[in-house]
Amino acid sequence: MNDPMDFECQERIRIKERPEDFIVEEILEVSHVKNDNLVFTLKKTNWDTLMAIKVMARKLGVSQKRFGFAGLKDRRAVTSQKISVYGVAEERVAALRIPRLEISEIERGDRIRVGDLSGNRFRITVKNVGGEGRIDWVKKGFPNYFGIQRFGEVRPITHLVGKLMLEKKLEEAAATFIAMPVEGEKYFHARKRLYEDRNYALAKQYYPKSLRYERAMIENMEGGALSAFKALPKRLNTLFIHALQALLFNRILARRCEEVPPYVAELDDVVVSRHLGHEAYMNVQSYNVDRINSMIPEVLPVAPIVGYKTRLHGRMKKITEEVLEEEGLKYEDFSMPHFPSLSSRGTWREMLGVVRDFSHELNEKTLTLSFFLPKGCYATTMLDYLFDRNPFM
């Protein structure tokens, strides 16, 4: 399996030089049907969402399962998002003091679930640019690849773990997550030592305490790799499978774009229409193909997030099955009797990312961008398209 990330700002432009260069505000309406949770705004700087929740849960003395969130945010950034927590007094949440985390706007509300957001508003500063890039192209949309965050910005191994889990190679999957070394990473030497000797009992003595998830697995490796993975939050285990699905989607989309633009629907495609929180899928047939294409971007062509229930036709079927064969995978592999909670039926994702409320300002060699992206779209992907840097093709 190829590495999806050979590009991390290797060209002259500089992105995310400071967290303040990448500001993200989640757009989400808090629901008040049950009002059985506390809901608050969490502003974080240089924090991973799951790790922030883990630390808050530990300080409050409650399970991470009590927390809800709509989406994962960039780590190297300043981000604001809504978080819900069940069964905790407001004064205890308000009293939390954690470096680079700010809690505000505490209210009663419903549990927040993944996908509840409508999108994110961005303000991004890009330095050392030679011009505006392909601004006019971006305004029309961009290929909706999953971004680097889905695979791991520092250690891009999440998709590798997911594939090994799918292949029932849980021991190797555990070793990959816990210890596969990546040059330049802070804990390279500790990981390299364990990756080579696989002595988990000894690793308990020297493994960095800040690697909390890895240490949780190490503590449970005596019971086998499955036991070790079950020591992780379900949300993290799910991310391994999602990362593999994301890589397959990126490969499928890249191949599709070589043949048909992402803003064009053709016979046997599937398209989605989203309105007021509802979504409707339809097949493209000879009688409606022209009408559908006239409605883009209100209606968008989709490609598969592959699962065991994925059913395709036409060009998309051919491309998807070629990609799966190259990776040594089949649809039915996503049914995981050895780890049932991670089984995935599959779903769809738009092939075109649509930018709204776009504005920009170029001051000498610094480009400042402000825009809104619907949920599921990555600003880093848009930036790669803007500056003609595509790691997936």
Walk me through the structure.
It is a single chain. The protein is α+β, with helices and mostly antiparallel strands and 393 residues long. The protein is built from 13 helices and 15 strands. It is globular and about 65 Å long.
Can you tag this structure with a few keywords?
single chain; 393 residues; alpha+beta; Alpha-Beta Plaits; Pseudouridine synthase; four-stranded antiparallel β-sheet; 15 strands
What are the SSEs and their pairings?
Blueprint lengths: L13 E2 L6 E6 L9 E9 L3 H12 L6 E3 L8 E8 L4 H5 L6 E9 L9 E9 L7 H5 L2 E2 L14 H9 L3 H10 L8 H10 L2 H7 L5 H9 L4 H5 L4 H26 L10 E6 L2 E6 L5 H7 L3 E7 L8 H14 L19 E4 L1 E2 L2 E8 L2 E9 L4 H8 L7
Parallel strand pairs: 2-5
Antiparallel strand pairs: 1-7, 2-7, 3-5, 3-6, 4-5, 7-15, 8-13, 9-10, 9-11, 11-12, 14-15
Helix pairs in contact: 4-5, 4-10, 5-6, 5-8, 10-12
CATH topology of the domain at 239-353: Pseudouridine synthase
- Low-pLDDT stretches are 2-10
Structural class: alpha+beta
| Integer average pLDDT | 92
- Sequence of secondary-structure elements: EEEHEEHEEHEHHHHHHHEEHEHEEEEH
What is the percent of helical residues?
25-40%
Gross CATH architecture of the domain at 239-353: 2-Layer Sandwich
CA-based gyration radius? 22 Å
Structural shape: globular
Secondary structure tally: strands: 15
Return the CATH class of the domain at 239-353.
Answer: Alpha Beta
Q: Give the helix tally.
A: 13
The CATH superfamily name of the domain at 239-353 is TruD, catalytic domain
Which strand-content bin applies to the residues?
15-25%
Q: Give the N-terminus to C-terminus distance in angstroms.
A: 14 Å
What does the main sheet amount to? 9 strands, mixed
